[in-house]
Design brief:
337 residues; alpha/beta; Rossmann fold; Dihydrodipicolinate Reductase, domain 2; 6-stranded mixed sheet; 23% strand
Length: 337
Amino acid sequence: MSLRVGLVGFGTVGQSVARLLLDGAERRLRLVKVCGRPGGRERAAWLPPSVAWTTRFDDLIVRDVDVVVELVGGLQPAWQWLHKALLSGKSVVTANKQLVAEHGPELLDVAARRGSLLRYDGAVAGGVPVIRGIEDGLAGDRLLSVTGILNGTCNYILTRIEQQRLPFADALREAQALGYAEADPAADLDGLDARAKLVILCQAAFGIRVRPSQVACESIASVAPADFDAAHARGCTIRQVSSAERVDGSPHEIAAFVRPALVPLDSPFARASGCQNVVSVRGEFSGETVFTGQGAGGNATAVAVVSDLLAVATARQRLAATARPIAVSATPRKRVS
């Protein structure tokens, strides 16, 4: 039985998710409805007639949809929509980092009470499976720190300044022209985007809720080519680094920041170029584990979203298997004398 998917948000990532679902490679997933914004993007000509188009979110929380995928972003109306979807018993997949950072624990609580699932691997590091790697692959360890390059836009700008000695403003304009940076890039440059992702990683790695307002942020906007010259003289380069670690002697306290920082030239962080993301997780027993890959772009994030959908489909199949009654033969056994 296929998982019937309702999608809200039809921008770059939403369209990439729709194309992956419609290519027929995964029979367990079936896109049945797309919800666009009223007055926004029109229905795409390549959507088949089997996919219904609506501008009303409530059309996604009906009987013919099993799971809602939210790719709109922002806190509102996404919070209201996903809360309503989970209360109705729908599972939810989202790549909305700001929403998960602010309200993830509350949404997870609603999902648990309603017997549904909430998955958000696409909210951090695009197609890099860092959340699943932490929650599943490193579940047996006590994790001590998470450090990463979590914003592809900033990493692109900094590597262009480093490699071409571009002034910051020129590197930013280039990133905007290529679609890597928004017209208003403040959330990226000032560390707010990376901060939201770091908060989500804190929950996954430490099981501790950290509020975004508790994470100190510094902008990369003052970084200049001369700063890289000075860094290279010390055997380092500059990256926007997001870091969280346990405070010694205080098991429930985390020290966290997002800021431009020196990193050694022989480190995985220095080798990250363009829009790459890198996450290093240090465990008490496992040591350092590094995740790296493309952290930006519609296709990379879409892969993470579809992977979450497959996880929901697998969980439903297991639940159905355990609920299936055992067949009992009606033919009486012969009595052996």
